[in-house]
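[#protein-structures] MJ: dropping Amidase here for a structure pass
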Amino acid sequence: MSKEVVLKSVDELAPLIEQKSLSPVELTKAVLDHAEHTQQATNAYVEIYREEAEMEAKQAEKEIINGNYRGMYHGIPMALKDIIYYKDKVTTMASKIHQNFVSNYDATVVKKLKEAGVVSTGKLNMHEYAWGITNNNPHYGAVHNPWDLDKIPGGSSGGSGAAVAAGSSIASLGTDTAGSIRIPSSACGIVGLKPTHGRVSKHGVYPLAWSLDHVGPMTKTVKDAAGLLQTIAGFDRNDPTTVNVPVNNYIEHLTGNVKDLVIGVNEEYFFHQVDSGVEKLVRAGIQRLVDQGAKVKQVSMPSLQYAEWAELVTSLSEASTIHHQHLLTRAEDLGNDIRLLFELGELPSAVDYLQAQQVRRQLKQDFQKVFEDVDVLITPTLPVVPTSIGDDHADLNGEKVDLIDNVIRFTGPSNLTGLPALSVPCGLKDGLPVGMQLVGPAFQEASILNIGYAFENTNPMDGKRSELLR
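AK: finished. structure tokens for Amidase:
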């Protein structure tokens, strides 16, 4: 029973819970047992809340028995990235400096999850202060990819990616500043959504770079992501970056109809210097949508050539401002990799930062112009497959290339523009998952989720699962 239920998606589990044929207590115990069983292999968790989770599951069960079913996520056990505050719980940011930090309030997304009846199973490992893409953490240990335990899970939300892929959390939330939801989602073969900037509150989430940060779902399926976004989205007075626009019923929009959809493909940037196996899978994914009635249109965005520079200057500058005091007083307590990044972030001038914002403005205009002619832009999520833990280089068609520079190439532009971007699994290359990225116009999450749903229904993963679920 344990393995059977942890394999299921929220969409499969919710009706069983609502109909009282599956108890939240039974499900939570199965997930906790599996999390403890797989922890040595994946190192996905920083802390497991067994006692509290079982109590919350009993409360959920009682409410459901009494006819107070709250919806899709009621009684669903979930762990979150350890950068999201829980009241009276330690939130470490996977760092030494904050190893004993306890918040006196819940993050807005945590509050909304509690209102939905979610059962909290614990906090998940991540790259220190969310500033990296390997999740090779010097304080809490490396997270291992459930598809191949020698490989990185991607980051910075690597614990979330590994936990969902391994079945040790039914779903999760991650944060994304240059791709940190979509990178591990691609690497671990799950669905990851970075919503539009302002769609989901960041109140109670430790910042990496104020103007680039996002919070979003990491799930087994597109429908699970739609339901989770519906749960956490909305305006929040505590977060001045949120935008007061209506929250759609994202699940109702999942029709799977993509007839006459216009797909934008940008060759010179998003299909330049891509692993040949990855490119083949993504192009095959686009063809699966064409086979359902979609059309392809080539698009050009000249400002993309400056996107990597603008993303780097912006993220380095903002992150180093946030951690300036740590550099002055506790530099030795930072991991070597992020300390170097924070030091580099002190180098850009005000001129550099403001020039980067001008590039950002032009990039937004270029995307806006493209979306006058196409409905969605489809790209590889990553140009390479996950590397071995500890290897700072990736293999790109036989050439060794810098890992971090390449991994954020295709995800970073959506952080600069704030546009919604969804990563969906599109197959395996040498036994490792490959993600296909869908980028849409601002606040059009319903549209890209539906396109992802239509693609997912073609079964691109052919029913294959990670090593820890076989």
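MJ: nice. Residues 355 and 419 are 20 Å apart (CA to CA).
AK: one more thing. The first strand starts at residue 45 and ends at 48.
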